[in-house]
Design goal:
Rossmann fold; two-stranded antiparallel ribbon; 8 helices; 16 strands; 25% helix
Length: 308
Amino acid sequence: MLLFAGLIVSFIPAQEASPAPAAKHDSLQALGFNITIEDLVRLLDLQRSLFLDPAAKVNTDWQDKFDELVVREIPATANRYAYAVDSDQGLQYVVIRGTHNLRNAILDLEYWKDRSPILGINLHHGFEKAALAVFNDLEPRLKPKMPIVVAGHSLGAAEAIIVGMLLTKNGYTVEKILASGPPKVTDDEGWEQFESLPVIRVVSAYDPVPFLPPKSFYPESPYTQAGMLLMLLDGPYVTIAEPTYFDNMPAAFKGVQKLDAHFDVIDHRIWIYADRAREKLAALEYVPFAGWEQYAKPRGDAKDAPKK
């Protein structure tokens, strides 16, 4: 999705607002999100580890945390996902890697709408193709009566949402879907049909990808975000963004490394998501959305940062 972001040139004005007072909270559940900070960090760390090569290292790092863990490669889309079982929690986990290579980036760019014959809604062509590849490989492994948690970042977040839709359509129980840095996958009609889908959308401050694909691609029936979006700011701070905030595109893009002063591509990277979430383990404070920029700064220059 970083490549996709780099190809878009548009503008959204920076918000002018005074900093609002922060309010301490004991948990994300108190803010309306069905996940703990500890589980959020755990899932983001697992998403991050999927970028490791070889894939066997993922098993080494995580095999003692689950009763069953397998990392699957999907040659058709050059992507991978992890399937894990936690018997203590009574949950199955499906965690999908984000954009990692040129073939993944091409999927991001295949933004035209397809009418899904399975789901009966409009879907982003590339995301639907990638999600179906995961679902078809995954389904034979699933335990039919055990609830499922699906998670992903970037392209993987888009796939996670659609895989969650497919699981629901096929009668599986989806406990939650964690979509971090999610691009848009469908339009308002699609979200109306899946309004009960338990998606937790997490956005890192200054991440441009949740604005994509832009409204201008389908002005009459644009791709949209839906539901509450948890925005991770610096330190203990979080805020909640309404989906309409992501209707318009970010500020003018300056090269593939960095947007203007309001948006920085580095904030889309999974290691930033994991680090921002980990900062909330000690304390959690909510701030109103107006003026959120006072509580977060872009995380440095992308050229000096780790790739993942």
